[in-house]
Structures are given as structure tokens and as C-alpha cells.
Amino acid sequence: MAGLCPHFVSAAVPVLLAATVSAQAACPMELAVYGDRDKAATVDFTPRGEGAAITNQFRMALDKGVVLDGLVMWTDDVERPNGMLMYKCPEGDVTGEELEACTVWQGVIYSADKSGRIGLLPAERADAPETLIFPDLAYSLRFSSAYGEAGFSRLPWDVFTLQGCQE
What we know:
The protein has helices spanning 6-25, 96-102, 137-142; strands at 32-36, 42-46, 56-61, 67-74, 81-86, 103-108, 110-112, 118-120, 131-133, 159-165.
């Protein structure tokens, strides 16, 4: 902003900063990227595609190139976003037994805003929340087939914060 009037510069900086903050806050859920406090994992949400029962789709990337596939389906009885993380599931039609064998974590995904208010994971097209909570994630992953010598070695924290928005 060289050569500009100092009064213009001081007035323009807050406007530019507000536009940047506003752009970050408006990330839709299906493009949100989260990371845990220990930098052991990232969660990238993606548009869900055709599955009518699936409300969110995501991938969790861990060390050693291990990637877990995630999906969320809202339950009918007590409305909750039931998330699942799967590792090396067979392709195509999968039996309940096969799905259970490749599921490494399952539970309700909670969210939290900047003031600490707890809520539920929103569906696509909603603004991405500041924080996501995957209860007992590390515990479940520790005893999964994805962990250990042939898999990842660093357990993520159960709490993930918004890191950015995919373009």
C-alpha cells in the first residue's frame, strides 16, 4: 500500500482483515479441514455424492500414509450424527459382518463453537463448526487393525479444530 494516504491505509486494513475472517468463518461443512492438537491426524470432509442416507463424508489421514474412510448417518430414533471410520473395507455391496470387521471407530460426532457450546455435527451446506469431538477415538484406534507395525503409529487426540477450507 505504498504511496497511499496514511488515513486510507489505516481505514483499509480493518476492512481487509474483516473480509479474511469472514471468508474463513463461511467454510461449508463439506469442504472443512480439521486437525488434532498433537498433529497426528487430519480430517478432510468431502461432498457426499449420491448416498441418500449418508449426511457427511470424510477421510482421516494418519502417519505412514494410513487413510481411514469416514461417513456419517443420522439416526432416526434419537437424532444424532452417527459417524464411522473404516479401514480397508471391501468394495461394492458389503455385508453387515464385513462392515463390522473393517470399522475401526463408531460414535456420535459432537461440535463446539468458540464459546464452548457443545452441539452436533452439522450436515453439508451448513457452516463448519470451530471444533469437532470424536469420543474415544484414540482408544478405539489403538485396538484397531490400522494401528501398529503394519499401520499408523501416532494416536490422534479426540478433539479436532478447524484448520481451513478446501477450494
